[in-house]
Design brief:
Layout: E1 2-4, E2 6-11, E3 16-24, H1 35-44, E4 64-65, E5 67-71, E6 77-79, E7 83-84, E8 89-91
Parallel strand pairs: 1-8
Antiparallel strand pairs: 2-3, 3-5, 4-7, 5-6
């Protein structure tokens, strides 16, 4: 799917329509001390293998791609509607 690199949208911070730069959302690095990671590490201790079954039968073919809009006036970011596509391509219009 092709998506424009810049778009005019409503900015809730400026309370008006502004030009916004579009980038794709990328998940940050997982913290090693969060509760879920500590729980899995605790369950893994003393085992030769992984304690929970790993689900290998994948139902979904593609992941959701979320565009992130950044206002050129104030610099605030907001998420746009996410799409379930194989490839979201940003292009100049």
């Amino acid at each position: 799917m092709k998506y424009p690199k810049t778009t005019r949208r409503y900015c809730p911070s400026c309370r008006q329509h502004t030009v916004q730069n579009v980038s794709l959302y990328k998940a940050g690095k997982e913290r090693t001390l969060n509760a879920g990671r500590r729980r899995v590490e605790r369950k893994k201790r003393g085992y030769g293998s992984f304690p929970k079954e790993i689900f290998h039968q994948n139902a979904k073919v593609n992941k959701r791609s979320t565009p992130v809009l950044e206002c050129t006036e104030c610099g605030k970011k907001q998420y746009a509607k996410s799409y379930r596509v194989k490839k979201l391509e940003l292009q100049e219009v």
